[in-house]
Design a protein that fits this description.
By secondary structure, chain A is mainly α. Helices cover 88% and strands 0% of the residues of chain A. The longest helix of chain A has 37 residues. The mean pLDDT of chain A is 89. Chain B is 78% helix and 0% strand. In chain B, helix 9 packs antiparallel against helix 10. The C terminus of chain B is likely disordered. The chains are: A mainly alpha (81), B mainly alpha (367). The interface between A and B is large, with 39 and 52 residues.
Chain lengths: 81, 367
């Protein structure tokens, strides 16, 4: 019995790449949400309405990406492998 | 009649194991949310229990691995399954008593394999499945969670590190409600399925189901309920003792660690790997801690986890084998498992009484 033949490399690689994409992607998207929200508030308070709007869009995009990633994860989980 | 009795005992024992699994693992699921004050302890435990229950319905891939990928279902008897369950429960209780961070999942697999080896020899064990689906993923998952947790917190700090800390901390605390929920969902789906797999294996062994049959609905619902109840009741003890156990981390680290742990567990569950959720979550927490400051991680705890990891499979296998031997002294019927069950209940009662007498736990208000 050789380790190389009994290990399910395809499944293992799928776990590695999907964990990296999901774990890092959700953190990136949610951090983007916080960056957008915080900067939008600060810039609006300082009177830079245009720049504040750009960061508000960043916040919305980050929020949508976070929600989409979570929903996608659950859909993948509930579908048969 | 006798065969029905033994199945009832095995199912009850499996659900008891599932309950202890939830009880044992509550801290892993909720500790990060509580320590960063993302959620209050009472709410965190109820939330985790509900999502543990929901998570159990997400997938059956791990249950299929346990039922047919590790031992030969055709050679397994309900007594072997019972021996395996007792091996797992006993090892869980021993490690709980001495405070060792062991894996319920490895204990369950070790117990079943040990009892099967003694009963039917090496033919009963699918060694390819044991190595390919259990041992290798068990090594990879905590390391992967460590890497994902570490990289995730570096990304988060890169993006929000120079912003005002107040709103960022509040934001990540809200995010932790999501990431903590995903972690509870992941825990429920991977761990509850192990019990579903074992019950399915016992039903196949007893002739109630055909070999290769899918897990019945009543098994899914009962396993989901048992782990959720265990999480809920385990939570109260964890809340009372958490003050001395939790690693200090900020909300961003908590979010990164929970997200990394959930991602690895959910991805592994999808392909049917029955991993240790305890070790995976620990790896993610250590990764998020080490990326900020290497010395912040209690590396002694990491060492204990490695020691417990090495010991769990053989120790649970040994206890499972001995239990199977004891039950066979009473024949092939339900008498042996019934006698062992009574002895376990007495031992568990004594252990609880002794443990509760030792020291007064810290209350939630003090933590």
């Amino acid at each position: 019995m050789r380790l190389g033949t009994v290990v399910e490399w395809g499944d293992l690689l799928q776990v590695v790449w999907s964990s990296l994409v999901a774990g890092l992607g959700v953190t990136f998207a949610f951090s983007l949400t916080l960056l957008g929200a915080t900067r939008a508030v600060d810039l609006r308070r300082d009177g830079h309405a245009g720049a504040a709007s750009v960061f508000a869009v960043v916040m919305v995009v980050g929020l949508i990406a976070t929600a989409a990633a979570i929903v996608f994860g659950i859909v993948v989980m509930t579908s048969k492998n | 009649m006798d065969s029905d009795a033994i199945v009832v005992i095995v199912v009850a024992t499996a659900l008891a194991f599932d309950f202890t699994n939830g009880f044992h693992d509550t801290a892993n699921v909720v500790a990060t949310s509580i320590s960063t004050r993302a959620m209050n302890p009472r709410l965190a435990v109820i939330y985790a229990a509900i999502l543990n229950f929901v998570g159990a319905f997400l997938s059956l891939a791990v249950a299929a691995t346990i039922a047919s990928g590790i031992v030969e279902a055709d050679l397994i008897t309900p007594q072997i399954v019972f021996g395996g369950l007792v091996g797992a429960i006993a090892w869980n209780l021993i490690t709980w008593y001495f405070g060792l961070p062991s894996s319920s999942s490895h204990a369950l697999i070790g117990g079943v394999v040990g009892a099967a080896l003694v009963a039917e020899g090496t033919d009963a064990v699918i060694s390819d499945g044991l190595i390919g689906k259990v041992a290798v993923p068990a090594l990879v998952a905590p390391i992967l969670a460590f890497v994902v947790g570490g990289l995730a917190i570096l990304i988060a700090y890169r993006l929000v590190g120079r912003l005002r800390p107040g709103p960022v901390t509040r934001g990540f605390r809200i995010g932790q409600v999501l990431s903590g929920g995903m972690l509870a969902l992941a825990h429920g789906t991977n761990d509850a399925q192990k019990t579903m797999g074992v019950i399915t294996l016992a039903l196949i062994a007893n002739g109630n189901l055909d070999s290769g049959a899918t897990t019945p609905d009543w098994v899914i619902v009962s396993a989901a309920s048992a782990i959720a109840l265990g999480t809920y009741f385990g939570g109260w003890r964890i809340i009372r003792t958490m003050g001395s156990r939790i690693i200090k981390m900020d909300a961003a680290q908590g979010f990164a660690a929970q997200g990394a742990g959930a991602a690895v567990i959910l991805a592994s569950t999808h392909v049917g790997f029955p991993l240790s959720t305890t070790h995976t979550i620990s790896g993610a927490v250590m990764g998020a801690g080490a990326a900020k400051r290497f010395s912040a991680v209690r590396w002694g705890v990491a060492g204990n986890i490695v020691v417990a990891w090495v010991l769990t499979l053989p120790a649970a296998a040994g206890i499972g084998a001995v239990t199977y031997g004891i039950t066979r002294v009473f024949g092939t019927g339900a008498v042996g498992p019934a006698v062992v069950s009574v002895l376990i209940l007495i031992a568990v009662g004594a252990a609880f009484a002794r443990r509760l007498q030792q020291g007064s736990p810290i209350t939630a208000a003090e933590s």
